[in-house]
Amino acid sequence: MYRAIDSFPRWRSYFYFITLIFFLAWLVKNVFIAVIIETFAEIRVQFQQMWGSRSSTTSTATTQMFHEDAAGGWQLVAVDVNKPQGRAPACLQKMMRSSVFHMFILSMVTVDVIVAASNYYKGENFRRQHDEFYLAEVAFTVLFDLEALLKIWCLGFTGYISSSLHKFELLLVIGTTLHVYPDLYHSQFTYFQVLRVVRLIKISPALEDFVYKIFGPGKKLGSLVVFTASLLIVMSAISLQMFCFVEELDRFTTFPRAFMSMFQILTQEGWVDVMDQTLNAVGHMWAPVVAIYFILYHLFATLILLSLFVAVILDNLELDEDLKKLKQLKQSEANADTKEKLPLRLRIFEKFPNRPQMVKISKLPSDFTVPKIRESFMKQFIDRQQQDTCCLFRILPSASSSSCDHPKRSAIEDNKYIDQKLRKSVFSIRARNLLEKETAVTKILRACTRQRMLSGSFEGQPAKERSILSVQHHIRQERRSLRHGSNSQRISRGKSLETLTQDHSNTVRYRNAQREDSEIKMIQEKKEQAEMKRKVQEEELRENHPYFDKPLFIVGREHRFRNFCRVVVRARFNASKTDPVTGAVKNTKYHQLYDLLGLVTYLDWVMIIVTICSCISMMFESPFRRVMHAPTLQIAEYVFVIFMSIELNLKIMADGLFFTPTAVIRDFGGVMDIFIYLVSLIFLCWMPQNVPAESGAQLLMVLRCLRPLRIFKLVPQMRKVVRELFSGFKEIFLVSILLLTLMLVFASFGVQLFAGKLAKCNDPNIIRREDCNGIFRINVSVSKNLNLKLRPGEKKPGFWVPRVWANPRNFNFDNVGNAMLALFEVLSLKGWVEVRDVIIHRVGPIHGIYIHVFVFLGCMIGLTLFVGVVIANFNENKGTALLTVDQRRWEDLKSRLKIAQPLHLPPRPDNDGFRAKMYDITQHPFFKRTIALLVLAQSVLLSVKWDVEDPVTVPLATMSVVFTFIFVLEVTMKIIAMSPAGFWQSRRNRYDLLVTSLGVVWVVLHFALLNAYTYMMGACVIVFRFFSICGKHVTLKMLLLTVVVSMYKSFFIIVGMFLLLLCYAFAGVVLFGTVKYGENINRHANFSSAGKAITVLFRIVTGEDWNKIMHDCMVQPPFCTPDEFTYWATDCGNYAGALMYFCSFYVIIAYIMLNLLVAIIVENFSLFYSTEEDQLLSYNDLRHFQIIWNMVDDKREGVIPTFRVKFLLRLLRGRLEVDLDKDKLLFKHMCYEMERLHNGGDVTFHDVLSMLSYRSVDIRKSLQLEELLAREQLEYTIEEEVAKQTIRMWLKKCLKRIRAKQQQSCSIIHSLRESQQQELSRFLNPPSIETTQPSEDANANSQDPNTQPETSSQQQLLSPTLSDRGGSRQDAADAGKPQRKFGQWRLPSAPKPISHSVSSVNLRFGGRTTMKSVVCKMNPMTDAASCGSEVKKWWTRQLTVESDESGDDLLDI
To answer: Mean pLDDT across the chain, nearest whole number?
Structure first.
């Protein structure tokens, strides 16, 4: 990057390399970890039997064995291996088992570790046999030998070695005993001495449990270590055979050298040097093959092998499925307990005596006048009370007898007693009746459903795969029937014993589930009670203590000034509009921008802007342009302090400082705000002119650099990031202790073996220390690969330097502190190759094993342990750590459904015209594949450099122009086929249109200018075009979505990293702004300004030579020039400051913050990566739903009316299909759920999809506790409402049929009158109407000629009569159909004869009486019985879910 900065514009180099590192090293590389973790989780399920189930921590001192009981049976009993089995006296055995003895031994181990850590190098002539450290080691060895002998004497040898811990102690005893032998002292046996520190793990139970989680199940981790070692051995042997014959290459001459080279590639430290040396040695012919060999090995080792270690550690930290739900209950219960107590800063008021505020009133209650009430109004209540009393005495004899036994009881007491009894009895009767009704109806419905399922009512139908909606619906129905105990004896008869046993086990299982529900409800009630108690406590403190909830104990609780401050502090932007009818929030056009504006209050927005401006002002500060001497920079300082003073005063007046419920200092963020304000205020008031190095003024300037951290407090999402970091502090602390223990073991060993042995004379020709004196000439070379051609007798340029016998510049093992610093640098995999080469060259090749073992343990296990712990803590904070497999799949499904969008694809045009043909062409798979191949072909053009002076560039650019016109043609065809509005709906089409437009602009500029900038623009357009392929393949789209969603969700984490980096950059300018140039501090990498400091720190984040930069900043006199008055006048560094600065920054950023990115990528990858077996809703299901939604949502608005949900559900096929013949009730439930949740309004794409997702899963397994209760309550309510509506519809239909029959019977009179008029009209019109009536009837009807026009007009709307047999048959056929109203029957095509029995009735005189008799005959008592039989038949059909009614009637809810 530095070379690119010197050769090209600075912004181009920064942009290219920073984006490259961010996307490839931080995002894409971590996708491999996500892939390996998900794949390993699947493979682990297959190898569950081999690895065994996860087990909890068990005591190493107990075991189990079979024991025969008194009844002759066998059982497992726990056996204590510490039980006395030896020959020692009872007092010694009791002492050995006491906690005092164990604490004494552990304290001695601690003292031994401290003594070993105090060892240091004392010179060459010091005799180590008479050293006090050697004598202390002998004493400790004797002590621990006696401890082992005592335990063997008390427990017996067999009982002693039965414990794995005792085996480890015995091994240490043997090894340390051999180590104190003078000839073996400070040899390889030193490992046994330093391994005593491992015994200290027993001090902390939490640490012991954590270690057991990681290393207890040793099969997986041990197998992976063996696999890694085998891979190294095999690849080393292959490399040895491939490159041992190459001349001038000494890296593969022997197997140890080949092993070290391949191990170096595995750690990524200097692997490019290994590859470059090999490529230069093998020549140009075999160079590509060798490069591919090393690159593939490097990718496999770094991306897959190291990710396997992370996957194994995460799997070890994973809990068993059975324990997760139990821990969920425990955690919910613990949260309920914690909410009950008030904070300590509020409970302090309970220590003071109560001083409630008294209110002075002018009148007593007896002084108030009673309003007048009418006697008539009171008398009705007195009479009613007397009647109720009489009824009560009749019903409750106990009450009357008791009243008789106590005649002296007053009337008021009797009335109270009677009133209470009445209320209780009425309430209990109502509740009991309601409960009995619900239970009876539920039992009947569930029993009939169960009977239908068991009777095989689906037999005879074609075999068809049932949808997941139907399966889950019947599972819930069966579960509820079992839970409510509806398996009657009638259903159970005729079953086999096996079936009955299975039903009994199912009943027991569901009863256990019901018990879990009661526990969950109890926890919820406990939470509510805790919140109520907390509120009650606050109210009591508010009433009894006048100074409670008073800011600064001065401002009143409801003072106007405080209310004004509250309004100012809590004012925020709110653009969400709600529907006045439904209350639902309406989506606005720019809702994302509005959500951003409403993220914080107006006051916080002002302070965010002021803080950002202040940070920008601080970036202009440097050691040469200081704020103390620059008035322009002081303006921003004054503005920040003034605005923060106003902000804090407003918040303190509104919420209080400390002793109020919503105080400013109620968490760590408030403390940090006050601290930053005080530091800024003190610095502004002091403004020191001279700041000496390592002084209090310089420390104040360093603390002033914490100002950007204010944004963490102001933005809620940033506070969440900090909370996620600190919530997992316990596990991170335990991992740090393990790594420090590992470093301490190897540091103590290195001090005892390498102390003083790494020093060497700077003159390579001098070997002994006695000869290292005087001066010598050292040659100067500009570059390693630059060989200057010298003339005969000419010497290389150089200068004379004194000879010095010294350690290497960056590390040594002369004491434990320096050794641990060196090992910490090695742990980061930076500089370990240099340490290895120095140890091998100056001590011996055999000691190279030391550094290789430490790197393997520290890198493969230690660093991956950090990654695993951070990911596990992130999952725990997100609430996914305790989720079962089904619950995690459900959470992934919900997150995936949130991302899903309607299919932005317009329908095909109806006609077969030009647009339809274009639509068919653009949607054809061959067309899409051709476009993808053309994109790849255009991308291949970038494999050759586009240079203006190169003649090959013009043909390449011309080919790119041709490709661009082809893509323009593609976009044009799509616009024609889909219409401009339909084309613009898809985001992918918008991206293609943007890239194509840029391509057209590039073509115009290319032929107009033809310079380097146009060629660069053309290359950028090709790169942008290449990214369009990712959306055209499922796997590539999945990976792209993972990266994009990870970037979106990790935005605040990235912002937090930048804020931390900004704070460290400001502090680096103050501490190391004037440090002299060294090995890595140069004109590119330095801290002279904030911008350059940010660049250096970003380099340190990648881990590139961070330790060398740290050592350059540690430079001290006499290698620099100090100054006593000002820090900007010296070029020296700060040893302690550099140590804390660089180590803390590297740990926070590299070990914690970057691993949070890994956790986010792993979480998001699980959203899109799932097999068909794991998916609750597959991609095909979502795609099918999108297509059906696209058909129903014709306006492409993303919302549809509620009544259209019925059509959408009936169009679904496959796994989301709802069969109306089998699952009519499910269909009604789904439709009513949409109406209930959205009050009959519009529903969105995600609303329907969410409803389908809930209906397609087993909620008992997939949902968490609170969500499960809420969902079951909703489904139960929907079930009740649908049942009520069904009964209501049935009653309406019954009433409608009865009324239709009554109306038809009552219309007989009118029908007969019409028949008479019809007969008269036939007599009047003989040619057209045939008559069969007698003449006297015709004469009788012809006596009223005025009625002829009216009857002629009514002939077109006649009803069928009783004498019309065809009409009777029609009525019989249409009995089950809805009846038409009178006046809607059409006239038959031909007149029919009228019966003589009807026409012979005397209509003039006895017509009314005769009609009554006819009506009575048409409505006999048998019609009521037939109506009752119809009701009974309807209930039978409803209960057996075999209704014969039409689907439209059943769906009309």
So the answer is: 75
